[in-house]
Description:
The chain is mostly beta strands. It is built from no helices and 7 strands. It is a peripheral membrane protein.
Amino acid sequence: MALHVSLVSADAEVWTGEASLVVAKTVEGEIGFMTGHEPVLAILAEGQVRITQTDGTKVLANAQDGFLSMEGDVLTIVAGNAALIA
């Protein structure tokens, strides 16, 4: 089983794919998501989103000003500004 992850900014889709783990920063602190996580709606804080793909490779992005939503192994991160880190 894998998480279906979508990271979008106000003007573009930044990254979409399957992941085994996603860690993001919210105004309440960092939170990690794996399959089977309970539903969550949280305000995104400025910081890194760390995505571990199902093959173990890592994707890093900076994100700020938005929210994230987790329900049924689908994680959607909507940010005012987001960009992949090379």
